[in-house]
Each structure stands twice: as structure tokens, then as C-alpha cells.
Amino acid sequence: MELQIRANGTKVTDGMREFIDRRMTKLDRLADRVIDAQLELRTETTRTEAEITTAQLTLRTRKHVLRAEAEHVEAARAIDMVIDKLITQVRRYNDKRTSRKRRGGRGEFAATAATETALPRDPDFTDMPDGVTDEFEVARTKSFQMDPMDVETAIEQMELIGHDFFFFKNEEDEKFSVLYRRRDGTYGILAPE
After folding, report:
1. Are 189 and 151 in contact (CB under 8 A)?
2. Going by C-beta distance under 8 Å and a sequence separation of 6 or more, which residues neighbour residue 75?
3. What single DSSP character describes residue 118?
4. Which of 84, 82, 79 shows the shortest CA–CA distance to 20?
5. By the 8 A CB rule, do 159 and 171 touch?
6. Helix (H) or strand (E) holding 98
7. Of 50, 80, 106, 112, which has the highest C-beta tally within 10 A?
8. Using CA of residue 94, residue 99, residue 100, residue 101, what is the dihedral sign?
9. Angle subtended at Cα 189 by Cα 138 and Cα 158, rounded to the nearest 5 degrees
10. How far apart are CA 4 and CA 57, in angstroms?
């Protein structure tokens, strides 16, 4: 697999590139059919004037996206941690796929319609922690291609990227929906009428 590296505030030396390539060989054996692999390194200065490096590793296959993120004061340690996280995700995904084949069918997932409603925000609430303002700022925007998928595939995809929600196009009704993990461990779906 050919890995693309994007660095922001971090210099990728030849030694670091060799380290990354050596660590990525473990993923080569585990992740079959990888179409695209990207490592993003960002180094930012915290409020305490310390520099912290965030490593985000994304692998794309024809059907799935696997993503992990880790941060550490040392760039090499952040890279090491993010690769370990992704190895764990790939192994977990492969184990689920193997156990599903042994069972002889599709997994059973509980998808329930959302019945919870959001509470209105209290306009009198002003007790914000230091450094937190009442204004909202979009820190990051991501664009991606979206193919229709069934609910089970959306749940797998959400679990693979490690989020508690997942935006997808439901192949049953061709509507965009949000899948989310409920507190009791089941899943819910938010869908437009």
C-alpha cells in the first residue's frame, strides 16, 4: 500500500519516513484491498506553550473507511499510537467478518427510530468555563463521496471509524440518515420524513 503523508507544522525527515514505512508493514498484512492510505500530521501549540502532534491515519477500501487518531508530544510516538489503534480496528473488523461467516448470515443489529427530542437551550445560562465562549466555530469541514448502504454496513462503518454517530445514504429509501449509538448500547436512526 502506498501511503500519502500530509504534514502541517511537522517536518517529515527521511528517518521518520523509514519509521512510518516499517510500522505500516504490519497493516499491509492485515488490511487487504486498501485503495487509499493517508497519514495527516499536525503539530499545534497548546495554551501551556507545549507542542503536541496529532496523527490521523485513514485507510480506504472499496466498501469501508478505517480511521484512527492519536496525539502525543513526540511525533514518532503519536504515529506509533495511531498505527496501533488502526491495527486493533482492522483485527476487530476481520474477526467480526470471520465470525459472521461462521454463523452463516448477516449480523443482527437493533436499529430503532429516534424518539428523543433535544431540549431548548436556556438563554439565561451564562456559567461558561474559562476560555469557552457562547459563540460556535466550525473547526473542520470534511467532504467525502457517499454511496448508498444498508443499515448493517453503516453500523460497521461507524464502529470502524470509532464514532458515536454516522451520516449515510440509506439504500432502502435513498434518504440521508444519521445512525447513532444510544446509551443502552442499541442503535438509533434519524431520518427525514
Report:
1. yes
2. 10, 16, 41, 43, 53, 55
3. P
4. 79
5. no
6. helix 75-103
7. 80
8. positive
9. 65
10. 10
CB atoms within 10 A of CB 86: 26
Question: What pLDDT, on the 0 to 100 scale, is given for residue 136?
Answer: 66
Taking the alpha carbons at both ends of the chain, their separation in whole angstroms is: 42
For CA atoms 125, 129, 135, 136, the dihedral sign is: negative
Cα distance between residue 128 and residue 124, in whole Å: 11
C-alpha distances out from residue 13 to 18, 42, 123, 173, Å: 9, 15, 51, 49
Give me the phi and psi of 76, to 5 degrees please.
-65, -40
At 45 the three-state DSSP class reads: strand
pLDDT tens, residue by residue, 150-192: 998 888 888 887 788 889 999 998 889 999 988 888 999 998 8
